Amino acid sequence: MLRFILTRVSLIIPTFLGITLLAFFLIRLVPGDPIETLAGERGIDPARLEELRKVYGFDQPILVQYGIYLSRVLQGDLGKSMITQEPVLSEFAALFPATIELATCAIIFALLLGLPAGIIAAIKRNSIFDHGVMGISLAGYSMPIFWWGLILILLFSVQFDLTPVSGRLDVLYYIEPITGFLLIDTLLSDEPEAFWSAVEHLILPTIVLGTVPLAVIARMTRSAMLEVLGEDYIRTAKAKGLSRFRIVALHALRNALIPVVTVIGLQIGVLFTGAILTETIFSWPGVGKWLIDAIFRRDYPVLQGGALLLGVVVMSVNLLVDLAYGLINPRIRHTR
Amino acid sequence: MALVEIENLSVEFPTQGGIMRAVDGVSLTLEEGEVLGVVGESGSGKSVTMLALMGLIPFPGRVRADKLAFNGRDLLTISDKDRRKLTGKDVAMIFQEPTTSLNPSFTIGFQLTETLRLHEGMDRKAAERRAVELLGQVGIPSPESRLSAYPHQLSGGMNQRVMIAMAIACNPKLLIADEPTTALDVTIQAQILDLLISLQKERNMGLVMITHNMGVVADTAQRVMVMYAGQIMEERSAADLFASPQHPYTAALLAALPERSEGGRLATIPGVVPGLYDRPKGCLFSPRCAYATEHSRSVRPDLRAWAGGHIRCHYPLGDPNRNAEIQHDHPVGTEAAS
Amino acid sequence: MTTETMEAPAVAAPTATPPHPLREFWGYFSANHGAVAGLVVIVAVVLVALLADVLAPHSPYLTDTSIALKPPFWQEGGTLAYPLGTDPIGRDILSRLIYGARLSLLIGIFVVAISILVGTVLGLVAGFFRGLTEIFIMRLMDIILTLPSLLLAIVIVAVLGPGLMNAMLAVALVILPHYVRLARAAVITETSKDYVTAARVSGAGTTRLMFKEVLPNCTAPLIVQASLGISTAILDAAALGFLGLGAQPPSPEWGTMLADAREFVLRAWWVVTFPGLAILITVLAFNLLGDGLRDALDPKLKR
């Protein structure tokens, strides 16, 4: 097991180096002077430019420059925003909880609906329910979520006036950030009604962001269940006279979950992609919207640092999922 | 009352190309404590017959029979709930691939005690004690430590012993062993067969041994049923069948045994079992039969009583008039070969 | 005991013949109603795209502020001259959707064509030469796969500058790893098979082996992946258009149309509803087709 963990961890090192390499060259490719971009300042006077040139090692070979960049990254120095002059890392840290909160709600929404739907569809194969789940999930999988968000706003906010159109919280409330997660912070604050405001604001973004993972999880659960239900050990379980419920809920599900967990892990990357769009539609103050804004403001340090950080986050989550996969699969857990 | 009574059983699977009849008009009785060998090539319907008895025919397969009874219980009308009380308790089954037949996500102990707790109502402690006892009976060394092992940590032979322990856990009246040794090493095969036979003798349980290997049933079975393309070809006591096979197919199977080969090359049966698209009109074995005639090609023989057993053949090998009959019906085999 | 071996008998005339492979494929495919529906929609979209000049009632670019934001014909104030209404600067939405079909199909086909071309070559190279070449290519693909696809596309477009061409290149790069992996896996399974060994023994060169022997054997999964790839390409390109990073106004690209109309969502539901529906239906059709092809071509699922 320890060896399994070590192999997996060591496997992400080249990926990490690759991502930093991409980010490193990104700065050199964007329009404008790379030193200005790196320093996060515009219109630098020649004396300072010369000084900065030394700091970033521009007089040195490219490999050394990459080494300097890498060591800065490892120390958490991702440069400064050209607009706010704030360090990229601290801006990211301030906005990231909003994205995590949204993403977590979306994945929970997708799991709560997707797992049961997939299991039931598999058991009742070729039934109307099965065809319905498969049809709806394919539509969900094909959904342009930026449009889906607008349609939900049109329906629930404009037509029925049920949910707010944008933001995380009603402007009436001001909540001091403690954890950064509004669902928690509002409960800790002295304004408990604010919690319901936060929930209201979360509903539509959660549905929009959860739609694609929901579709994928439902389809994957169904096909994993179907495959497992055809295995020899399910026949053995039936030959033991076990009840249908026990066979499905215990013998089949435990094995079917193994590929499903992997798929959920892969969905984390998709989730951050979706978060960029969802946050843009709902003006959700997270890292996705921050990145898009950075593009239009030509704030390249933010784009470089933010993309690097998001990449690292996705990579780490994939690693965790991989390890979780090892935990639920005894064939891996017990190999030394 | 016989332990198992099957009359005119057929099992069909609908496929894209039409209906596939895996079992076709099989009738069979089995007495308590009897050992029956069911022999046939792959696809001959021997496993499907027994899966039908267990109620394990997967969707969309269809089971039809005039009678299907176990221990006097009608299995055609039995409720699912009552059926589940029987399977795993009074009838148990072990399969060809022991390693894939055990659930990879659960320990041996869990899978073994599950049956005991369900059918015998034991608590965890009692079930575990009994599980250790059972593992010892099937010859697994240091059984206590095996309870927490996973199937992938044991060898195929060990896993088959676990499967046997699971099957005999509730003292079944009938054990069906579906090619129990096919996937195992040759050295392990004999051990597993010996184990099955000694357990059968100890407990006087009925045993159905499904195999494609005539050699396996030679020393174990009291009665042998030979199946071909879903039909019974011949069914007689093992001693008679091995001494003087009556069906050309049985004879050919026996001739293909290495220990029976008489010098020179090992006999083979040319051709393959008919599939969905090339099912002959007459006798199903006629395309591969050395004695096929115009008559046997066009008229399918019925299963009839013959020489103390049953046979499905127009010209049984022990029939004194068969040469005359074959001549009369215009043999075709020799012309085709020349 | 008989000692004679059995004579080879004449083969009995079969009562039915197995169907021809293509016929069998069509049998499986047509039994899948969703796949057939997808195919019908795709054919319809292709026809609309080809006949856009004939079908579109107006020019997709002609603005006329006097008729801005006219609702669809069935609503009060709507007219049959603009069946699906007009956008905020008075362009006919139906005409723009019809020309948009042309763009979306071009995007899908262009992106997938590039990806397949580059991806197959990279995959074949990785599969055949193994060693360092393979490690380098596959690691690079892993990195692309690790990064969220749209994020990567956004970064690329941000560097290259917004525009349809750059957006298409970015999307092509993002979906590249699927084809590389597919081609490499196919090469590795195929090269271990006997017929490749046979070809090699008989002196066939590596290039010849790659293109003549192995490639035809991985076309089935490539076709399936291509169909699914077109849907991803259309969807991602539309997303980039929506973010203002893809096709630029006044191009009638569906995602760009949505971006233009976004601020009017509260006043005029039709300006956002129809472009999105067009994307959804087209993408769904390609996904249905891809699923149907996979089921029909994958022998594992056959009984």
UniProtKB/TrEMBL annotation, chain A:
Gene3D superfamilies: MetI-like
Entry protein name: ABC transporter permease subunit
Lineage: Bacteria, Pseudomonadati, Pseudomonadota, Alphaproteobacteria, Hyphomicrobiales
Pfam families: BPD_transp_1, BPD_transp_1_N
Transmembrane parts of this sequence: 12-30, 100-123, 135-158, 194-217, 256-282, 302-328
Residue stretches making up the ABC transmembrane type-1 domain: 96-321
InterPro entries registered for this protein in UniProt: BPD_transp_1_N, MetI-like, MetI-like_sf
Membrane topology (UniProt): Multi-pass membrane protein
Assigned keywords, A-Z: Cell membrane, Membrane, Transmembrane, Transmembrane helix, Transport
Subcellular location: Cell membrane
Domain of life the protein comes from: Bacteria
Automatic annotation (TrEMBL), chain B:
Gene3D superfamilies for the chain: P-loop containing nucleotide triphosphate hydrolases
CDD domains: ABC_NikE_OppD_transporters
Domain ABC transporter per the UniProt entry, residue ranges: 4-254
Top-rank taxon, per record: Bacteria
Keywords, comma-separated and alphabetical: ATP-binding, Cell membrane, Membrane, Nucleotide-binding, Transport
Keyword check for Transmembrane helix: no
Keyword presence, Isomerase: no
GO molecular function: ATP binding
Family under the similarity heading: Belongs to the ABC transporter superfamily.
Protein name in the entry: ABC transporter ATP-binding protein
Organism per entry: Microvirga splendida
Top-level taxonomy: Bacteria, Pseudomonadati, Pseudomonadota, Alphaproteobacteria, Hyphomicrobiales
From TrEMBL, chain C:
PROSITE patterns: ABC_TM1
Keywords (A to Z) from UniProt: Cell membrane, Membrane, Peptide transport, Protein transport, Transmembrane, Transmembrane helix, Transport
Record's signal peptide: none
Keyword presence, Disulfide bond: no
Membrane topology value: Multi-pass membrane protein
Subcellular location: Cell membrane
UniProt cross-references to Pfam families, sorted A to Z: BPD_transp_1, OppC_N
Transmembrane annotation, as ranges: 35-56, 103-129, 149-176, 222-247, 267-290
Database matches in Gene3D superfamilies: MetI-like
Annotated ABC transmembrane type-1 domain residues: 101-290
Main location: membrane
Entry-linked SUPFAM superfamilies: MetI-like
InterPro entries linked to this entry: BP-dependent_transpt_permease (IPR050366), MetI-like (IPR000515), MetI-like_sf (IPR035906), OppC_N (IPR025966)
Family membership noted in the UniProt record: Belongs to the binding-protein-dependent transport system permease family.
Protein name (database record): ABC transporter permease subunit
